[in-house]
């Protein structure tokens, strides 16, 4: 493989005529970097590495204008490919998880009210219990699905895909859900300061 400096990479990959040899070398750099970064991960088999190498190559070529030269070009390129890989691994983890199942598994038990001198952990339980109550009774089914999935850590892209929404549509849905949750907590006498105090935010 040819040893290239940053300027060589940019000239070979970003000119009016793309150097296919340079593209092949870039793919090999990304493949090796991904193999190192994902070593030991069961889901990162040869097929996965190949797919992410291809997607990473496309992203690097499409983002050449954003390379500022603060590092070696190959370091920058491998970082992009690794980000792509971890995004895909997160999506794969949630791909077979049903939103309905997440909502069913969400805790709903309400703890008993603590005494007035109870420590902050009891205050936290009260806030959590009220949050669960509002989520169960104060949100629409779709708002509840989206918000619970978000709380559980499901990626936004996967939530949107399962709900048949665009990213903007999901943003509006979860925004409205949070507003309803906030109003429900305030109606129960719990304000933002109390939430922050209970969770040491």
TrEMBL record:
SUPFAM superfamilies: Sigma2 domain of RNA polymerase sigma factors, Sigma3 and sigma4 domains of RNA polymerase sigma factors
InterPro entries in UniProt: RNA_pol_sigma-70-like, RNA_pol_sigma-70_dom, RNA_pol_sigma70_r2, RNA_pol_sigma70_r4_t2, RNA_pol_sigma_r2, RNA_pol_sigma_r3/r4-like, WH-like_DNA-bd_sf
Biological process, per Gene Ontology: DNA-templated transcription initiation
Residue stretches making up the RNA polymerase sigma factor 70 region 4 type domain: 139-181
GO molecular function: DNA binding; sigma factor activity
Keywords for the protein's UniProt record, in alphabetical order: DNA-binding, Sigma factor, Transcription, Transcription regulation
Start and end residues of each RNA polymerase sigma-70 region domain: 34-95
Family that this chain belongs to: Belongs to the sigma-70 factor family. ECF subfamily.
Entry protein name: RNA polymerase sigma-70 region 2 domain-containing protein
Organism name: Gemmata massiliana
């Amino acid at each position: 493989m040819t040893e290239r400096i940053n300027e060589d990479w940019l000239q070979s990959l970003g000119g009016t005529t793309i150097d296919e040899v340079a593209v092949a070398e870039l793919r090999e750099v990304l493949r090796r970097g991904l193999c190192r970064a994902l070593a030991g991960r069961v889901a990162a088999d040869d097929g996965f590495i190949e797919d992410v190498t291809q997607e990473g190559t496309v992203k690097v070529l499409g983002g050449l204008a954003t390379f500022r030269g603060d590092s070696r070009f190959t370091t920058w390129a491998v970082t992009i490919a690794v980000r792509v890989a971890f995004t895909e691994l997160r999506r794969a983890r949630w791909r077979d998880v049903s939103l309905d199942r997440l909502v069913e598994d969400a805790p709903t038990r309400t703890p008993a009210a603590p005494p007035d001198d109870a420590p902050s952990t009891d205050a936290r339980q009260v806030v959590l219990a009220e949050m669960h109550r509002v989520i169960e009774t104060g949100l629409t089914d779709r708002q509840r699905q989206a918000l619970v999935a978000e709380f559980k850590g499901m990626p936004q892209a996967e939530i949107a895909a399962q709900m048949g929404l665009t990213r903007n549509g999901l943003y509006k849905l979860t925004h409205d859900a949070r507003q309803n949750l906030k109003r429900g907590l305030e109606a129960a006498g719990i304000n933002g300061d109390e939430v922050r105090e209970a969770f040491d935010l």
